Amino acid sequence: MLPYGRQSISAEDVEAVTAVLGTDWLTTGPAVTRFEDDLSAHVGGNPAVAVTSGTAALHVAYAAAGVGPGQDVVVAPLTFVATASAAALLGANVVFADVSPDTGNLDPDAAKAALTPNTTVVSGVDYAGHPIDAEPLREIAHGAGALLLEDAAHSIGGTWHGRPVGDLADLTTLSFFPTKNLTTAEGGAVVSPRDDLVAGARSFRNHGLVRDRAAQRFPDEGPWHQEVHAFGLNYRLPDLLAALGSSQLTRLAAFTARRAEIHARYDAALADVAEVRTPSRRDGADPAWHLYPLRVLDGRRRELFDHLRGNGIGVQVNYVPAYWHPVFADLGYRRGLCPNAEEYYAQQISLPLFPDLADADVDRVAQLVREFFGHRE
């Protein structure tokens, strides 16, 4: 089965991870510091806080933003559930706002309409790798006294009007799951230009421990002493995985370029198939494509999905609107809330896209799509 996504591991990656096994550090140590510094160079020079997953990054970012009970967080629904659930776990009320029909990203007008006096964070998602419409969303969030969070799980390596992902919002979260644009096996990061948010993220990912004697309430307890002033969790990334991340970052530009080539090859092969819509890209966007989200316009998405799976193509659908999950339905959220997101989901199918995908496989996938709709060479 040809998967829709797959990690790209080199001999250098293996060597980097193996080298850590010969050191005194397996958990958080110098390799994590190096990875955070390496990552910072790709996100506009902003500090990065490495954590154990993209979901952890969202939880940490919301905690750093002070999200809690009595507060509202505006979220785009066309996303993996964690963008919303991480805020809900902190006690916030999640307010879903619809997406733009072309990109599937949070629509600024919908986000503005969703604001309340209690809005703390507006969370946009770089769906499929296309950056959010950062300028109006930032203006909307800041005008309401809220922060803008960019869930960039799909998009490290991309730019928006020349600015890199990681330099567009108050908080940016990244994911390094194997199918993402680079991997640490499991892992993620929080990025911010604001020192207070970085400090909050570092504290929450390490149980909220205070080791600085000048900040402790009982500094004379002893040299071993550490305190917790606010609850946190253990979201520390191990050195083993951070070493893999630093090695992968050396090839991020090549990964991004190859993903763009594959994306363009699908575009060209499917341009004349009237039954589908190829992904949109707005002026000023240079995406780091994570997905190839083809849209089937005639209600035959399920048939095409089964046809491709039956021919050994491991396509996927990304994503069911977050509020459709029973956990949100049980809280009173109802279908029909965000029509654009629901229509996008009903049409969407992700074709295989990863750097090691051969041109011949791209052509085979495209030909199977064409043949399904009766288009032959």
Automatic annotation (TrEMBL):
Coiled coil: none annotated. Its cofactor is pyridoxal 5'-phosphate. InterPro entries: DegT/StrS_aminotransferase, PyrdxlP-dep_Trfase, PyrdxlP-dep_Trfase_major, PyrdxlP-dep_Trfase_small. Signal peptide: none annotated. The keyword Ion transport does not apply. Keywords: Pyridoxal phosphate. The keyword Hydrolase does not apply. Belongs to the DegT/DnrJ/EryC1 family. PANTHER family: DTDP-4-AMINO-4,6-DIDEOXYGALACTOSE TRANSAMINASE, TRANSAMINASE. This is UDP-4-amino-4, 6-dideoxy-N-acetyl-beta-L-altrosami ne transaminase. The lineage of its organism: Bacteria, Bacillati, Actinomycetota, Actinomycetes, Pseudonocardiales.
